[in-house]
Specification:
Strand content: 5-15%
Helix content: 25-40%
CATH superfamily of the domain at 66-141: LysM domain
Order of helices and strands: HHHEHHEHHEEE
Structural class: alpha+beta
């Protein structure tokens, strides 16, 4: 029992040299243990929880508060919509500015129009009969410009008559 062959002497010299086995098997096993411990620590360190800073909340740009109006009827205009929701037809420009992709001269059915909540006085949409009534009442009210200018000569296009200093004359275009 004194001369028990070691593992290194049993394997071929080529295999032993490739595996790092020499006459010192203790060194081989220590090297193997060191490698194993190193890789285990490497694996465990990659699995450990790291202190991460809490996720930051990235504030989204706030869209101004608005109500939305869907165009449902022919003849709706921004001035009618402004008059209904804000009480003043002159707010059509504010509404147009609030809707940059909207052409105020070309509003179509199913268009969605945003109206700034800061100028809204009424949130309920109008019916078709309310739209017709609004159109009639807006036609009867002359604008401030029309009320302040008193033209000396005017032409009534419907009747074909012209008024000069308050007298009516028949206009015959030619």
């Amino acid at each position: 029992m004194g001369n028990t062959p070691c593992f290194a002497s049993i394997c071929s010299s080529r295999v032993c040299s490739e595996w790092g086995l020499g006459k010192d098997t203790k060194g081989f096993y220590m090297s193997l243990v060191k490698r194993t411990v190193f890789f285990m620590l490497l694996i465990l360190s990659s699995c450990s929880k790291r202190e991460l800073e809490p996720p930051r909340e990235i504030p989204l740009p706030k869209e101004p508060a608005a109500i939305y109006h869907e165009v449902l009827f022919h003849g709706e205009t921004l001035s009618l919509i402004a008059a209904w929701y804000t009480g003043d037809s002159k707010n059509w420009k504010t509404i147009a500015d609030f809707n940059p992709g909207l052409n105020p001269n070309n509003i179509s059915i199913r268009d969605i129009i945003k109206i700034p909540k800061s100028i809204v006085k009424r949130e309920k949409s109008f019916t078709q009969s309310e739209l017709q009534a609004m159109k009639k009442s807006m036609r009867k009210k002359p604008s401030l410009l029309e009320r302040s200018i008193n033209p000396q000569n005017s032409l009534d296009a419907d009747s074909g008559t012209a008024e000069t200093y308050g007298e009516k004359e028949q206009y015959e275009g030619g």
